[in-house]
Amino acid sequence: MPGLFSDALAWVAIATFVAGVVLAGRNRDLGRQVTTLGWVLFAAFWLQLIPHFTLVHKSYIEGLLTIAAVPACLYAGLLLYRGRDSLFILSRAVAAMGVVYLPFETIPAFTLLGATIPAPRGVLMETVAAQTNFLIELLGYNPEMILGDEGYLNTFLWMQGSHRIEVAVVLACTGLGSIAIFAGLIAAVDAPMRRKLRGLAIAVPIIYALNLFRTTFIITSVGKQYFHFFVDEILFLFGSSDPYLVSFFISDRIISQVLAVVALIGITYLVVREVPELLTVIEDVLFMLTGEEYDLRAELGIEIPDDSRA
Questions:
Q1: 126: Cα separation from own chain's centroid
Q2: Number of helices and strands (H, E) in the chain?
Q3: 149: which of 100, 105, 168, 171 is 20 to 30 A away, CA to CA?
Q4: Which string of b and e fits 259-279 if b means at least 16 CB within 10 Å?
Q5: Do 39 and 82 form a contact (C-beta atoms < 8 A)?
Q6: Nearest to 57 by CA among 46, 49, 47
Q7: Are 135 and 216 in contact (CB under 8 A)?
Q8: pLDDT at residue 309 greater than cutoff 60
Q9: Residue 260 backbone phi and psi in degrees, to 5
Q10: pLDDT for position 235
C-alpha cells in the first residue's frame, strides 16, 4: 500500500466490517447499516489506490480491477442495505481477509521486553526470497542476494555486463493476498470446521507453491533478460523508458498475471468441491455483474454434504 493514510483507511474499513458482522448477530438492522458503511469505506480505500496501481505500479490488470472495485463495493453496500442478506457472507469474508492480510502490511518491527520482534512483512518477504533463491540455484543460476530498499534480504542482483539489475520480492510477491482471499471466504461461510480446514489445505499449499514458481520465473526472466522483445512497443504500453524493464513487464505484468487469474479460477473450483457453501458468494458476485440470479449448485451438480453437525 502507498502509505499511512492508506493503511489507516484499510484498518478503519475492516474494523467497520467486523463491527457490522458482530452487530448483525444481535440487531440485524443495525448490523446492516454498519456493514453498508463498511462497503462505502472499502470503496474509498480502492479509490485512493487507483493512482498507485495505474501510474506507479503500471499494472493493467490490477489497475482495471482496482477501478472496478469502487463501483462494485458501492453496489454491494446498496444491495445489502436494500435487503440482500446473503451479502452478509461476503461482508464477513472481507472482514476475515483484512484480519489475515493487514498485520503483514502494517505492523512494523518493535521491541518487547528487550527482544526485537521483526516486522511480519519482512519475515515473509525474506522467507519467500530465500525459497525462490533455492529454486533459482536449482536451475543453475547464482544471482547475489542483497538488502533491499526496506532493509530486508529480499533482493536479487544480476549483472548484464556492467549494468546492475535488481529484482526484489515485495509483499505482493508472497502470495499472501490470494491466501487471504481464500482464508476469508472459507472462514465466512456456514460450514463444518472439518470441511473448512480441508478447503484451506487445498488452497494454501497450491497458492504458495505456484507463487514460488512465479517468483522464480519472473526473477530469472528479468535477470537474464529472456523476454527482451518488442522493446519500443512494450515501453510505450507501460509508459517506461528503461529497456531493461521489458522482460519484467512481459514476464510479470502480462504472462504471470494472466496465468494467475486462470490458476485462481482452478483453485476456486477445487475448493468449492470441498466447501460448496462458497457458491453463495459466487452467486452474489455474478448477480452484481449481470443482474440475474444463479443456482450454481444445480448447474454444476454440487450438493452440500449432510454433515452440518460434523
A1: 18
A2: 12, 5
A3: 100
A4: ebeebbeebbeebbebbbbbb
A5: no
A6: 49
A7: yes
A8: no
A9: -65, -40
A10: 93
